[in-house]
Amino acid sequence: MDEGPSGGGTGIPFVGGNESGGVFIVVALLLAIVVGALVFLAWRRGPRGEVTPDRAYASLTKLASRFGFAPKANQTVYEYAGALSEVLPQSRPEIQTVAQAKVEVAYGRRMLGDERAAALREASRRLRVGLLRLVFRRRPRRGIRPRLRT
């Protein structure tokens, strides 16, 4: 048996750090490529056809629900948008744009102008990518509350 410098051998050959470090770099690069491809596909896919406030909001809630952030039955559009904005602060402007358009059209009986419709379409497209961040978020466990320090 090959014994190490300490005089005691385990029978397991020592693997140097250089070989295993290369494997981690390759795995990290592959993961970065896969995540980048998913983001690109979500961006390219985007909304098809006319984007209405109802469709944009339905798309938002459907995608967020898939990642465990569904709206509660008693939440209003603005309450849900606020809660989701706290989870995804980078997407707050897009979430607010969709929520405001939904409320104005559904409850205010207004029509969106061309400029607002274009802003809604762009916000909906950006949200598809922004909501992918939910994959990396963990939902807090129910029933577990943080302890307050006294």
Relevant terms:
disordered C terminus, mainly alpha, 5 helices, 150 residues, 57% helix, 0% strand, elongated, single chain
Strand and helix layout:
Elements: H1 17-45, H2 53-66, H3 77-87, H4 92-106, H5 114-130
Helix pairs in contact: 1-5, 2-4, 2-5, 3-4, 4-5
Q: What features would you describe in this structure?
A:
The chain is mainly α. The protein has one domain (about 20-135). About 55% of the residues lie in helices and about 0% in strands. The chain has 5 helices and no strands. The chain has helices spanning about 15-45, 55-65, 75-85, 90-105, 115-130. Helix 2 runs parallel beside helix 5, helix 3 (about 75-85) runs antiparallel to helix 4 (about 90-105) and helix 4 packs across helix 5. The radius of gyration is 24 Å and the shape is elongated.
Q: Summarize this, please?
A:
This protein is mainly alpha-helical and 150 residues long. It has one domain (20-136).
The coarse overall form would be elongated
Mean pLDDT: 77
As a percent range, the share of helical residues equals 55-70%
How many domains would you count in the coordinates?
1
The number of E-state strands comes to: 0
The secondary structure category is mainly alpha
User: In DSSP terms, counting alpha (H) and pi (I) runs of 4 or more, how many helices?
Assistant: 5
Strand content: under 5%
Elements, N to C (H/E): HHHHH
Radius of gyration: 24 Å
Note the main sheet.
none
Distance between the termini: 59 Å
Give unreliable regions as ranges: 141-148
